[in-house]
């Protein structure tokens, strides 16, 4: 369990997220993920990083239980910093990051995927930001890299989801495959990149980041400020408490 990294084949490093049951990462997990991606990119032999996950879904965001167990704001601050570091590590990785998305990709998962270079998804993958329903904000910066502006706003306000097939229509998801074929499909793209000259690939990553129209780091940090305001005002605690009550009620009904 945790964050694992290994060399799959020449030039390809694989970083795997494994936090059962739903890959909702605690603060330490976000920092560990950032470290693993950065270390993989710093390796001069690496030409591409594959980011993947074990289990039911790719990512369910932050660990809400960690937030609820904290009577102050320490957990929130660490989660904010951890997410920022992990998203930045993907974007700033010295080589391209190919992300393989299985099942659900929610909250912080959108931050990882939106900052990736190539996205391959299983045919059961769904993408969304439930932040508004949790009394928080964030990662609209990254969702805006996946869908057109007005759709991003609609998804954000409604906490709605899109399928991998819909994102493929917009061109943000490169390929949609059966879940059993996901790792192989991501690896095929990664090997294609790894076959290029590493010096050129690293220069290309820097060049593409350099011509981006949006500063993703500053934009996301701006969003995080509103999340902190909602928490300081007590709004987030109130909404999370209702969310917990709803979950408890659903369990009783079952």
Automatic annotation (TrEMBL):
Keyword vocabulary terms for this entry: Lipid metabolism, Lyase
InterPro entries in alphabetical order: ClpP/crotonase-like_dom_sf, Enoyl-CoA_hydra/iso
Pfam families: ECH_1
Keyword match Signal: no
Matching Gene3D superfamilies: 2-enoyl-CoA Hydratase, Chain A, domain 1
Family listed: Belongs to the enoyl-CoA hydratase/isomerase family.
Protein name per its UniProtKB record: Enoyl-CoA hydratase
């Amino acid at each position: 369990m945790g964050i694992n990294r290994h060399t799959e084949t020449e030039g390809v490093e694989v970083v795997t997220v494994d936090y059962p049951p739903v890959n909702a990462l605690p603060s330490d997990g976000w920092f560990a993920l950032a470290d693993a991606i950065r270390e993989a990119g710093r390796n001069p032999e690496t030409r591409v990083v594959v980011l993947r996950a074990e289990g039911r879904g790719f990512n369910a965001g932050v660990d809400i239980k960690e937030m609820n167990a904290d009577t102050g704001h320490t957990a929130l601050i660490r989660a904010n910093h951890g997410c920022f570091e992990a998203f930045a590590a993907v974007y700033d990785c010295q080589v391209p990051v190919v992300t393989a998305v299985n099942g659900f990709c929610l909250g912080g998962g959108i931050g990882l995927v939106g900052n990736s270079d190539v996205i391959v998804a299983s045919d059961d993958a769904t993408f969304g930001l439930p932040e508004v329903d949790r009394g928080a904000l964030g990662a609209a910066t990254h969702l805006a890299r996946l869908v057109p502006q007005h759709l991003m706003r609609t998804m954000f306000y409604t906490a709605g989801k899109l399928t991998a097939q819909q994102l493929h229509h917009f061109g943000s998801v490169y390929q949609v495959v059966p879940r059993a074929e996901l790792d192989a499909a991501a690896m095929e793209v990664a090997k294609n990149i790894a076959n290029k000259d590493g010096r050129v690939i690293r220069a290309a990553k820097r060049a593409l980041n350099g011509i981006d129209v949006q500063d993703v780091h500053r934009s996301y940090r701006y969003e995080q400020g509103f999340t902190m305001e909602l928490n300081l005002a007590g709004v987030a605690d109130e909404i999370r408490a209702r969310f917990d009550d709803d979950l408890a009620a659903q369990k009783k009904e079952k």
